[in-house]
User: What shape does this take?
Amino acid sequence: MPLPIDRLPTDDHTNGWSALLPARVPRPPLQGELDLDWVVVGAGYAGVAAARQLARQQPSASIALVEAGEVGENASGRNSGFAIDLPHVPSTSAQSTDQARRAIRVGRFALDELNTLVKDHRINCDWARSGRYHVAVTNETAVNVLKTYADNLEAWHEPFQWFGRKRLQERLGTDYYSAGIYTPGTYLMNPAALVRGLADSLPSQVWLFENSPIIEAELHGSAPYVRTALGRIRARKVILAVNAFSQSFGVYRKRQVPVLLFASLSPQLSESQLALLGAAPTWGLTPAHGVAGSTLRLTCDKRLMIRQGFEYSPSLRTTEARRAKAKATNLDLLRRRFPQLGNLELEHFWMGWLAVSQNHAPAFGQIADNAYAASCCNGSGIVRHTAAGMLIADLALGRKNPLIDDFLVQGTANYIPPRPLRDIGVGLRLAWDVWRGRSEK
Ligand SMILES: Cc1cc2nc3c(=O)[nH]c(=O)nc-3n(C[C@H](O)[C@H](O)[C@H](O)COP(=O)(O)OP(=O)(O)OC[C@H]3O[C@@H](n4cnc5c(N)ncnc54)[C@H](O)[C@@H]3O)c2cc1C
Assistant: This one.
């Protein structure tokens, strides 16, 4: 039975990263009937990587990549722009060392791919190996979380440096953090520019259709298809790469939940403001408390970026009042970190949805005879969903890639009870995490 797609992505045209870029002409929408080898739905990191991998392995195949909106206006273009090479949830179990090494192998494979593509296609996205500070606001979190993370890094034989408050202040220009761990392998970039560049450099056998929301899908049977308002693609095989929107396709409804995040960019800082910051010309930090904490950057073009807020959002919609509150919190948290900069303002404020699972594992695999899905990024999808896209293509092609087992080292997303039980369970759990981590905001 074909499924009507009940919840489509919307673009509120607020994405700060794409507002900094030159205008881009989107590819035309799908029109008419097509019969192809492959259709990939969703042009974020996962979908673009899947389409490229299919083209690489089957140079004569016909491939469509169908995107509801415009490339770069989705979560892939709205995120904080950290391509992170390492797991960053500390763990104390011995088994986790092997798991982490395998996850790192997958991460480095995807980072190598991104590095090569950025260089080969001259993707102008401020791509830089700036490293990452993983920071704690309170001494308690420094001891409970960062110390464990330092032990993990030692066990994984990954280089790192420990920074106390004073050294962090010298580097970053804020004394807000009690301690931080610097690891050198993270790349920072403008994420909208990166995903645009990746999509615009796809091989010519990939037909990219933008502004083409899929409103009906038949994923089962021998002739799967997807339909938009103006056209339909029948394909031998379908790959879904719609992350938080998987639930609309009836996929992984009991395995993942959508969460909503908020982010802001300041105007460019003046020379006199920059003189009041630290010695590092550009940097990025992630919070030791992933749910309550704030992600922060000083960008190449000298803006401060903050990402804060992490809430259960089953409707994939929010209200103006919620946005206003989140924006005020972003501004307040930025000013608290940099009181020396005077009354900092925000030039851009936006939000985006991603998907998480209860056990931090991906929702990935074959979903019907001729349909596959790579979903549930758990928050670090630039790297992980570049890998997921390439690996789901390999799985669909029947290629035996040992990295698939590494990618699934934590298993797949486990069962979450349906609504309304889920609303109570997940909503309360996240609200509790935010409350417990309130000092890490
Ligand atoms: C504010 C924020 C900050 C983040 N920071 C980071 C970070 O610093 N580093 C990091 O690695 N990750 C970060 N993330 C997570 C990261 O953005 C995601 O992991 C990543 O975008 C997932 O990629 P994806 O391709 O799976 O999904 P998406 O980017 O969500 O792409 C899915 C695509 O599917 C399309 N789609 C959905 N429904 C349909 C339909 N019916 N028809 C057609 N197309 C459809 C959507 O329009 C979308 O383009 C952040 C996310 C947010 C929101």
User: Anything to note?
Assistant: The chain has two domains: 3-78+192-257+358-432, 129-187+260-353.
